[in-house]
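Q: I have 277 residues here and want to know how they pack in 3D. Can you give me a structure?
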Amino acid sequence: MENPDDIWRQIVLSEGKDSQLVDDLRIALVKKSALSKLFVILQYVKQLTKEEKSIRILDYGCGGGQLLTYLRILGYKNVIGIDVGSLEANNKLNTTHRNMGFKSDVFFSYDGTTSLPFNNSSFDIIISQQVLEHVHNVEQYLFECRRVLDDDGKILLDFPHRVVPFDTHTQMWFVHYFPITIRRYFYNKYRNNNAQKYADSLNLRPIWFYKTLLNKMFSSTIDMTCDRIGVFAYKDNYEGSIRLRVFFDKLMSVPLVGRYVKKILSIFANATLVVTK
């Protein structure tokens, strides 16, 4: 296997006990990282950290731990992941990492309603990847980001929003554009009566809502979305329509015209923002 993501899935299944898979992942992250769905995020982390491997990084909403694992394998020494997931799930991730040869536990749980269990200015970089769309109290989430971030620190935010036409969570086009009562009807009818599930787990807001809030709370917000969508290296993991994405990829490469197409498409794409405290 050459795709790092395929190797990671095998490592999860083996709970990190297969040392050959761990070695394969180390090699793949060096030689085949462009095949990973996390490639662009890893590139931004590399730029923000200036490859300083001792920099303090928080993965705020670390989920299944894939990004944090990649960072650890790439040599970043001071990484922490926290999520509202169960303590059991995070303990399992820590066990997998110990089996992979890492000594310290880096995955932690919290209830999502209280302050993060970290002191002020504890981190130089905060990564929030595919998290904000699940946060109902966005103000508190960002307040905690600002509190635990060092004065010279930066936040890398990558998330879908309500203007994106295809919702990868429900695998439906445009439904999330409508009021909640209409959304509930479609989710119940076409997604196995899961309206309540999506109401609990999704809080998609327009991109301008997030930008307005960020501009009030932080000194600067740089939109990297246009830059990000110009890179399409992970076709095997693309969750939307691959044909449509390839079509737009070709359109964006057309001289002169492609520049404006990219700017328009960035409005309807997942957002990637770099925020400075």
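Q: Anything worth noting?
A: The chain has two domains: 38-161+205-240+269-276, 166-202. Residues 19-31 form the longest helix (13 residues).
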